[in-house]
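Escalation from tier 1.

The customer reports that the assembly of four entities below gives different structure tokens on two consecutive runs. Tier 1 could not reproduce it. I'm attaching the input and our single run for tier 2 to review.
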Amino acid sequence: MKFHTVKLKDIAKELGLSSSAVSKALNDSYEISEETKKRVNEYAKRINYRPNPIAQSLKQGHTKSIGIVVSTIDNHFFSQVINGIESIAHGKGYNVIITQTNESYDIEVQSIKHLIFRSIDGILISLSTETENIRHLNEINDRGLPIVFFDRVSNAPNTHKIVVDNFTGAYEGTMQLINSGYHRIAHITSSPNISITIERLEGYKKALKDSGILYKEDYVKYCMHGGKYPDEIHKALTEVLSKADRPNAIFTASDRITTSTFTLLREFNVQIPDEIAILGFTNTQLASVLDPPLSTIYQPGFEIGKNAVELLIKLIESKRPVKEYVTTVLPTTLFARASSKMLK
Amino acid sequence: MKFHTVKLKDIAKELGLSSSAVSKALNDSYEISEETKKRVNEYAKRINYRPNPIAQSLKQGHTKSIGIVVSTIDNHFFSQVINGIESIAHGKGYNVIITQTNESYDIEVQSIKHLIFRSIDGILISLSTETENIRHLNEINDRGLPIVFFDRVSNAPNTHKIVVDNFTGAYEGTMQLINSGYHRIAHITSSPNISITIERLEGYKKALKDSGILYKEDYVKYCMHGGKYPDEIHKALTEVLSKADRPNAIFTASDRITTSTFTLLREFNVQIPDEIAILGFTNTQLASVLDPPLSTIYQPGFEIGKNAVELLIKLIESKRPVKEYVTTVLPTTLFARASSKMLK
DNA sequence: TTGAAAGCGCTAACAG
DNA sequence: CTGTTAGCGCTTTCAA
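Tier 1 run:
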């Protein structure tokens, strides 16, 4: 940015004051007379003065920007979360740097380094599917950089977390399938490294158990990269479809896995729901106009984002070390549609 | 960020050198002996030294970050563009600040101010539907801040632009409808303020003309906010459907308008394509599994993003003022599916 | 109530 | 080849 911007010194010169006086006036210091404050503020406004945030950051040690780490932006759930984050952050004068991991642990580590390098004031993160340990996060958190987890959280005790009630969401979804007459329910899910996979699996198991249906381990297929590679979903699905005791329903555990599985079933010419019913987590707005309409479990992405930044900003701006950490749990919403309708 | 970071002075002290010597060594200056360079670099790496980018920015006057302005991130086209942008930017050491206008002129102006305030080195922008004049951009461009337009561009001559061939895309799409037997084709589009609306309208008109079909002005409905308010699409569609000479096809001009119109037609219980055929611009991956499969015009979002940043970074890093500006035009791809299949 | 001066961490003239 | 010094724009003691 080469273009000349007006700076403190300019307005000091113009008004016959010192830079420090102007700085104080602008910051409404008690040391400055009301009259000078007025003069300074009026002139500053007139010439549209803006303090250089870089210089402020250097001096003050914070940047008023926060980093977001998600697996990918091209996903309704995450873009809704980001909208929620921005809706609050901008209002409070923070701006937001978004980075994507593409479900890779290495890129996650790199992204975080990059964010720290950029001197952000705090991090909002949903872990990648590959992430098994969070040493890279603990370390910086311990050194004092605030971190808030959302969606895919870790079991680290010393930070805030925002999640949806994955257990209940999965339980209700599985129950809907069972109540519609499907008793052989496969589960295609993401990597067991991440929290949501475990919680959703537990909800699924509990629904089976409560209904007196035997849990079969080989009905559960993991996509270790969260569906990043189309191949892994393809493989999971064909394995499940070629079983001797072929399931008659599939419960899918994430946005991409749900829509991809649906698309593949259609490509395979499998009749939905007559041959295979399907119900899964996804935030797509097109669920009701798919063929057939897709049963979904919806997550309040916008609210997750809002809650997460609010906590983060509170952490950043807190004067004293925070010792109490909260975990906020938001409900999911089940939309039962034709893809899981009553078995004939 | 409170945690103590190691700085130049620390390593200077440790190695018995001056800060400037260390700085030069780290920057591989010709003034420094190979031996000291080696000593410095090794030690720096060992203690994991990272220069403070804030301080560097203050000194050097650039921040190695670029601003993106789009209408909304929750849109396949834009999230693909952003992926393209990041794929290049990160590799070149730039990071990216994304802002959304929500199709509002006021927010656009504010976002740009915010980005300038953040001292970004350049801007990548797709105009909001409300934007009629670009004085706010010309001014900063004239003052020397590089700007590259993509997708929704202005007619400002003094900058690079990346667009798709909207005219041909619309022409081919309309032709596909005509060739399938639909001759009463309505057009639901965005605000006529923005370039893509005009170009797509022209393509549509040309296809009609080349086919000997009379262009009717009242077959064209504008959504002044690009479909941000569901009401405007609803209104446009009901107006078009209630005409005496009701159209038998609709050509829709943007991602959100296409999917929303499709959804509304289904809600209205209009048979697609028997009563109304539909074909439109959208990058959704679900087109083929909608009911019925949706005919789409796809835009190479990722490539648009890549091209746009490459040009922007070239602009930013160019030593001498750039006088020659290019406009890159990328092709669209037509996917004809059942929603516009041959009229019985 | 105001100003002078130091310093945030780094780079770059200029000296040596 | 290396060190001294000044300065990027701002804030903040401290002195006046």
